[in-house]
Design goal:
By secondary structure, the protein is an alpha+beta fold. The chain is 23% helix and 30% strand.
Amino acid sequence: MDINNIVYITLLVLIVLVPIIFYIISINNAKANISNYLLERGATDVHVSHNWLDADRDTLTFDVVYIGVKGNRKTARCKLHHWGLFVDSELYWADPLSLELVQVERQLPHSEYHELSEKIRAHLPFVLPTYEISTILPIKNSEDQIVMMKYVAAFRNIFRCQPDGSIVWQAELPTASGDVYTNVEWKDRYLTAFSRSCIAVHLDLETGKILPSGGVQGQTAA
């Protein structure tokens, strides 16, 4: 076997093996993130297994078994975004309200985000998976704001809020279940939101409903 064939075979092996190695490392990093999250919140006997049958281009899915803080055996499913070796620190739980964990109190500054989050919590008649705000957008000629909560679970996580935290509307989602918004922005005077199901929509500023493609009414960026 001449040197050219050896080089060719070596490159071929590397092309096959390197992505596999990267994928295995990202899986192990994700497992560590999930285990640490649960252990920090009082869970014990944590077992995390990768679900090979439920995966897409940039998401890893894991089945988790652990003992909750009340001593019950719990099962859960968790997703994380990944890009090569890099795994997102945000955990996406299928049912975050049933995890049976100790709530970790974070030392948050009394920032605009935190203050508005507490006001929204006080006004909402129902419980959200999280009240942690990831995005606030101003509205021109209005004291109201567009607020997006962190996408830790499937829920309608974009709101139009008044300064006192009262809710004007909660945005409609593009799919019937299992979806959540991951980004919202003013784009060409459209209030544009992008969902985890990879659907971009324009939201009506007055109602929070998804506008039909091709026309926008009442959209005014700050």
